[in-house]
């Protein structure tokens, strides 16, 4: 039985800052905005061929899903390739290789002249516009962004299926302590191992050329590439200061403690985290049961 996932994320045209902040930013509600880059140079000339011609010799770090482990965060690439070789490879067909959190501007400052940050809200972290490249059928497994920023994800080439989950479901998604991942496979959920998934609801959307997905702070996201392509993310601070604190704690403390303990204890540490995630979900399920929640797939307020 698949997870309950609805196509409830709206697609809207560019709106005023006041309307965006009141309807989506402050309530922390996901939405897709059309045309943010339509009249900018980036939207008109950025494609795979453009990057092959202008940055093809740059060495880039590749993340290969076939080599990933569920107990590891996305911190270090598995190996490097020239940007040109990688782009030519993803154009050939399905692949599990992705270019993740790529700061292309570090190698080509001229890219800054091709786009402007949106004016529909403030608080953008302008030093961190990241790019994400992948081939057809490559998948970014479900996770939260560790810095807990809000993200504007803009699609330039290809399409992506993006599935989002409200952070209120974190315990029922069996989040590992000390990082922002889970062992759950949302494409093939194991309800016997993860019974809390019966109470989880997701929202999905297909992100196409010229569209920008606003992902609020802490929202879980699973991404599937439909055709080879790329997107760029722009990060802005959450309207909630507790998210700033949580994000800073994740970056400075949690992920580093996690890496150290993995090196020291190896699988024993991973087994401990798995058991703790299971315990937290079980306790929440007991709380739901105690409150006599008759309807499945709902949570206490």
Provide an overview of this structure.
This protein has helices spanning 17-25, 41-45, 48-55, 83-92, 241-265, 267-290; strands at residues 4-6, 11-13, 31-34, 59-64, 79-82, 97-102, 130-134, 139-143, 150-165, 201-207, 211-215, 220-236. With 301 residues, it is an alpha+beta fold. Strands 1, 2, 3, 4, 5, 6, 7, 8, 9, 10, 11 and 12 form a 12-stranded mixed beta sheet that branches. Strand 2 (11-13), helix 1 (17-25) and strand 3 (31-34) form a beta-alpha-beta unit. The model has no long low-confidence stretch (mean pLDDT 91).
Q: Return Rg in Å.
A: 19 Å
Structural class: alpha+beta
Pattern of helices and strands: EEHEHHEEHEEEEEEEHH
User: Tell me about the biggest sheet?
Assistant: 12 strands, mixed
Morphology call = globular
Total strand count, please?
12
Termini Cα gap: 26 Å
Strand content: 25-35%
Helix tally?
6
| Low-pLDDT ranges | none
Mean pLDDT over the residues? 91
Q: What proportion of the residues is helical, as a percent range?
A: 25-40%
Quick rundown:
This protein is of the alpha+beta class and 301 residues long.
Element layout with pairings:
Blueprint: E1 4-6, E2 11-13, H1 17-25, E3 31-34, H2 41-45, H3 48-55, E4 59-64, E5 79-82, H4 83-92, E6 97-102, E7 130-134, E8 139-143, E9 150-165, E10 201-207, E11 211-215, E12 220-236, H5 241-265, H6 267-290
Parallel strand pairs: 1-10, 2-3
Antiparallel strand pairs: 3-11, 4-5, 4-6, 6-7, 7-12, 8-12, 9-10, 9-11, 9-12
Helix pairs in contact: 3-4, 5-6
């Amino acid at each position: 039985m698949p997870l309950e996932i609805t196509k409830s994320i709206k697609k809207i045209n560019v709106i005023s800052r006041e309307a965006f902040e009141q309807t989506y930013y402050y309530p922390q509600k996901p939405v897709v905005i059309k045309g943010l880059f339509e009249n900018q140079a980036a939207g008109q000339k950025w494609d795979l061929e453009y990057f092959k011609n202008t940055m093809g010799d740059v060495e880039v770090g590749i993340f290969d899903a076939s080599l990933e482990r569920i107990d590891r965060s996305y911190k270090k690439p598995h190996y490097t390739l020239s940007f040109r070789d990688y782009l030519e490879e993803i154009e050939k067909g399905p692949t599990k290789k992705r270019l993740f959190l790529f700061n292309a501007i570090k190698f080509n400052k001229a890219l800054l002249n091709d786009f402007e940050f949106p004016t529909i809200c403030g608080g953008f972290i302008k030093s961190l516009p990241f790019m994400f490249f992948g081939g057809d059928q490559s998948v970014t497994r479900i996770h939260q962004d560790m810095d807990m920023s809000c993200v504007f994800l803009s699609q330039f080439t290809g399409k992506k299926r993006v599935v989002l989950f409200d952070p209120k479901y974190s315990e029922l998604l069996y989040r590992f302590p000390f990082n922002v991942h889970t062992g759950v496979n949302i494409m093939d959920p194991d309800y016997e191992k993860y019974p809390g998934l019966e109470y989880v609801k997701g929202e999905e959307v297909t992100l196409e050329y010229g569209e920008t997905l606003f992902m609020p702070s802490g929202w879980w996201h699973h991404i599937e590439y439909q055709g080879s392509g790329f997107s760029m993310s722009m990060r802005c601070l959450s309207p909630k200061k507790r998210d700033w604190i949580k994000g800073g704690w994740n970056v400075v403390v949690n992920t580093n403690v996690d890496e150290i303990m993995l090196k020291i204890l190896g699988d024993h540490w991973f087994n401990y985290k798995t058991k703790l995630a299971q315990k937290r979900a079980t306790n929440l399920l007991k709380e739901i049961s105690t409150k006599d929640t008759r309807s499945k797939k709902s949570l206490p307020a």
